[in-house]
């Protein structure tokens, strides 16, 4: 959901990493310098907005994720959820 407010990006440095945060969406990324943090944020925002491709099983394994256990959808029944509306 978009608001009438122009998106704002904040950049902070923490423990040697630059952290870029889009305040409209809450999407956060990091990089070793400002440029890398902003590039990574741009990529993360593209994914947030549904762009990109679905990872292959090989992609998931390379990221340390077992493809057989990778599920999305409803949270686990014992997980806490909060309605923020």
TrEMBL record:
Compositional bias annotation for Acidic residues: 75-85
Region (Disordered): 46-85
Listed Basic and acidic residues bias regions: 50-71
InterPro entries linked: DUF7387, TTHA1013/TTHA0281-like
Pfam families membership: DUF7387 (PF24113)
Coiled coil: none
Protein name in UniProt: Type II toxin-antitoxin system HicB family antitoxin
Origin: domain of life: Archaea
